[in-house]
Request: fold
Amino acid sequence: MFKGLRPIFYGGREVWPLVEGGKGVSATNHASSGAWAAAGGIGTVSAVNADSYDPEGKIVPQVYHALTRRERHEELIRYAIDGAVEQVKRAYEIAGGRGAININVLWEMGGAQQVLQGVLERTKGLVAGVTCGAGMPYRLSEIAASHEVSYLPIISSARAFRALWKRAYSKAAEWLAAVVYEDPWKAGGHNGLSNAEDPLVPEDPYPRVKALRETMREGGIPDSTPIVMAGNVWFLREWDDWIDNVELGSIAFQFGTRPLLTQESPIPEAWKQRLTELNEGDVLLHRFSPTGFYSSAVRNDFLRNLEARSERQVPFSTQAAGDHQYQLDVGVKGKSFWVTKGDLIRAREWVGQGYTVGLKTPDNTLVFVTPEETKIIRRDQADCMGCLSQCQFSSWADSETNSTGRLADPRSFCIQKTLQEIAHGGDIDHNLMFAGHAAYRFKQDPFYSNGFVPTTKQLVDRILTGD
Reply:
């Protein structure tokens, strides 16, 4: 046992202060989270469009039949609730009374509040707590407390927690089980970088977590309420000076990337294999997500294509003005776009390479894509089922108008489509593959040598040694 690491009391029993990261669409499910809890930790069922099963145990494809986005959005919410309830029940059974089961929701997912209410209503006594990030989840505490379930907000700065505490969480303080600090530079998935922070200059998490603890103390939150360190956590021995540290108070650790490579992990074998081949720097912090948040994913062909698409971009004006004195004569039919001489030359070169269609963005620029890409972009935008509260790619918003009021952005992508595809056996090179920035360590860690893939129990036991 790694020195200083002690069980904490959570969900009515003693558990290891080790939390399985929630990981979005079907990248954690009942099998992985149930096994993590059975090993004595806190397993986390992803309640983001989780899978349901037919009577034969096969996954029910999430097919949308309605004609309007609003009606498809309602279908999505039903799928999400039914799937998460099924996953929680199965995970609880696998856990067998050990550890604890949490659920994870994204505040910016479509219908987040309805989904959370619906799942908690149908899983009474099974869910210990709710982790929630991706946005400012003010109503998380109110919803969790109404179901007598703990809540664990995911934040990336003391300032964000202070705002949540003052506005809402202080009114349901007794249900605050922990605060998850997610490193906005190193964690996988969506990241909480603010506009004041430089995406290219990662900050040391220690002073940021120390500031978070000080903020919690200002609110009267006891030091026994853990801060869960998430993002870039691999070996516990690398965090030795955080354990039993009076400045930080109680500390727990969240593992998001390491549990991807276990026998119970539901991700496809090709994805698992790719994780063992990554080198440092192969995970990219980017801004292509339709959420508008920064996001970390493996820099595969899918991401490279998005990078290249944004590079084939020129600003325009609708009349000759300033440097924009040259009328664009490629990529746009019968429309007046005025660009600089240099951009006119570049646009002609792109068209010569096959990128013959210029698509408008919300920022008064044109991106050049192939006719085939144009069809895919337009079809994906039309097929939108409202999986986010606001989507830059399709301009959907979960509001009365169902629109963000901005032009749909062809520089982004349909996140629901690509995450469902990769989680269910789709091409790992041409879909979004979330991972934390420490994923390259699979290749270096002797635990995984000779292609070894541990059970979840073997992984947790290994982590508890400090490795």
The chain has two domains: 8-276+441-464, 301-423. The chain has a mean pLDDT of 94. The radius of gyration is 23 Å. DSSP finds 13 helices and 18 strands in the chain.
